[in-house]
Structures are given as structure tokens and as C-alpha cells.
Amino acid sequence: MNQSDYTYSSIHNDVALKIASSLTVPDLSSLSCCSRVWREIWGSDCVWEPLFKQRWPLLYEGIMKDPNFKGWKGFYIKQHKEMRDQAESVIKFVEQCSKSESLQVKDHLKAVECLKSMRFGFKDVQMLLFKPKLNVLLNLVGLHYCLNILRVPASDVKEALESSNISDRQVHVKWWKLGRWFYGFRMRDEFHSRCLSLVDLATLKDDTDVLGVLHRGAIHEVLQVQISIVNSTSSLWLIQNSQ
């Protein structure tokens, strides 16, 4: 037995499983490279079943109707690949729509709707869309989806943004509202402008529900919505004229 195996043998099996169960998927993969016995722990259903349940609770409920189901690690990896491929389709869609560094709000909302139809979970967004290398508009799509569709608590989203090192990324949001009528005359259109970080949007540290404006788009009294990246030499637009 090599040194790493000997080190493991001094740890009770229950303790080893508890250690493995507390790790993230990337850390588990690293652990499996340490020794043969840790690789056996890595392949255990006891480790992968709770990970699957946490990431895809609705799918887990369906699978549990089969009491004899086994192979959680393989099923987790298969499901992750499917979600990764679906996320890539959304990423490519947004990037293709913004080749000229402009994106219509209908396309932004379509990307959010795609995540909904794919039944993305909070963990899926964290792992696949909350990435610093992605365009901040894609981060924003994930943020919008988590808060407005999944109804994830703002504190959990804030923690996810910070752990992904994207919380300080900023956007500049502008929108124009139809002027109000006053004694038979319509007043000048109202202009609103907010410069916000992603964490500001998540925790609503503002006197206006900016995400609500984005979620509704340019309808009713809102004539136009525009989003640009702060400190960028070019602007990324989210524009749609009123119906």
C-alpha cells in the first residue's frame, strides 16, 4: 500500500464519506486523483446522490420513484454535459445577437425564457453563466433568471456573485417613460438612469426596481430601455420600441 493509501486507512470510512460529501464537484475530482481508495469514495452513490438532489431537486424526485436506481455519478455527469450544451446554445445566441455590440431586449428576454424552458437550476446558473470570462450581459441574463424566475433569495444570489468574482461588474441602465397627462397636455417624457453593479441589482440597493423594468421590457408607459457596460469603449444596447 502506498503512502496515500496508508493515510486514508487511518480515517474511518464514515468520516471519509462525510469529508467527500462536503466537497464541491471540482474538489471531488481532485480528491479522486489522490489515491485508489479516494477514487473509490469518489465513485460512491452516497457522495453523488445528495449532489444531484441539490442541483436538480425536481428531476431527483422523479428518479426516486424507482427505488432500485443506481449510478448517481454517471447520471450526474451525463446531466451536467446536457446542461453545459444547453448553456452553450444560450451563450452563442446572445453573442450572435450582439455581434455589433447591441442586443434588443426581446433577445435578452428570449435568453431568459430559454433557461426557463431548459429547467435550469440555481447551481446550473452558478456553474455555467456566472463566469468572469463571459460577457456581463450573459451574467445579467443569469442574474435576471435567478431572481425573477427561480425566485432565489437575494442573499443567496449575492453570495454566488461574490464567490464567482463578478459581483462588481457594472451596467448602466437607462429608460424612457411616456410623459404623464396634465390638464389635457402630455408632459415631457421622463428619463431615468442608473449605474449599478450586479450585486446592487441583486440586493436592490436602489430606489427603483431596475430588474422589474428589464423584466417588463418596453411596454405600456416605458418607451425604450437601454443597457450599456460601464467603463467600456463601446456600448451594449438593450432596446425595444413600444408596441
TrEMBL record:
User: Which Pfam families does its entry note?
Assistant: F-box
Q: GO biological process: any one?
A: protein polyubiquitination
Under the heading SUPFAM superfamilies, the entry gives: F-box domain
> What GO cellular-component annotations does this UniProt entry give?
SCF ubiquitin ligase complex
Q: Which residues form the F-box domain?
A: 11-49
| Record InterPro entries | F-box-like_dom_sf (IPR036047), F-box_dom (IPR001810), FBXO4 (IPR039588)
- Signal peptide span: none
Q: Give the domain of life.
A: Eukaryota
Protein name from the UniProt record: F-box domain-containing protein
Task: Record the organism.
Answer: Hibiscus trionum
